[in-house]
Design a protein that fits this description.
The longest helix is centred in the last third of the chain and has 25 residues. A two-stranded antiparallel sheet has the order 1-2. Strand 1 and strand 2 form a beta hairpin. With 170 residues, it is mainly alpha-helical. Helix 2 packs across helix 5, helix 3 packs across helix 4 and helix 5 packs across helix 6. 15% of the residues are buried. It is 62% helix and 6% strand. It has seven helices and two strands, in the order H-H-H-H-E-E-H-H-H. The radius of gyration is 21 Å and the shape is globular.
Length: 170
């Protein structure tokens, strides 16, 4: 008598999974995030909050002091608007970021650091720098630069376009 194929679903153990870039990157991001969170704890910020505040400051400086729109921020950070507004809530609540309507289009909101936000960002910078220097020391300057370059490449619009292009199966 011939055996028929089992109707049982395959288990994960029955597959030979290739290395997963997503899992590796997320695991590394969690580790680095925890290290930077620990470093920023004395100033009461999470690494994601400091990154968001620093990006607001960077974009405003590049635009002659004009606060970035939430859409500009979301695009720059490669996150959805809903995730950005969620991340901004505690910063707004704590008076570190102010959301203001755009002067020309009242439907558009802009995120600006308050004076308290700028002060907190400056306080956090020294703690962040210490953590960043430790990461550089442990990884080595060249590996750290490669890590940043690869992360920037994966976060780029060009990578997304190439990923979504079925003719670029490389």
């Amino acid at each position: 008598m011939r055996k028929t194929a089992s109707k049982e679903p395959a288990t994960a153990a029955s597959f030979d999974f290739p290395p997963c870039n997503n899992t590796a990157l997320r695991r590394a991001a969690r580790r680095l995030g925890n290290l930077y969170d620990d470093a920023l704890e004395p100033v009461g910020l999470k690494a994601t909050q400091m990154g968001l505040m620093a990006e607001i400051a960077r974009l405003a400086a590049a635009n002659e002091g004009r606060a970035p729109s939430l859409q500009e921020l979301a695009t720059r950070l490669a996150i959805q608007i809903s995730a950005l507004t969620h991340a901004l809530r505690p910063l707004v609540r704590d008076g570190l970021v102010a959301l203001k309507p755009d002067d020309e289009d009242g439907r558009t909101k802009r995120g600006a650091l308050t004076s308290a936000g700028m002060k907190r960002l400056n306080e956090a910078a020294a703690h962040w720098a210490t953590a960043n220097q430790r990461v550089e020391a442990v990884l080595g300057s060249e590996a750290a630069a490669t890590l940043r370059a690869l992360a920037d490449r994966v976060a780029s619009d060009e990578f997304l376009a190439a990923f979504n292009d079925p003719s670029d199966a490389g």
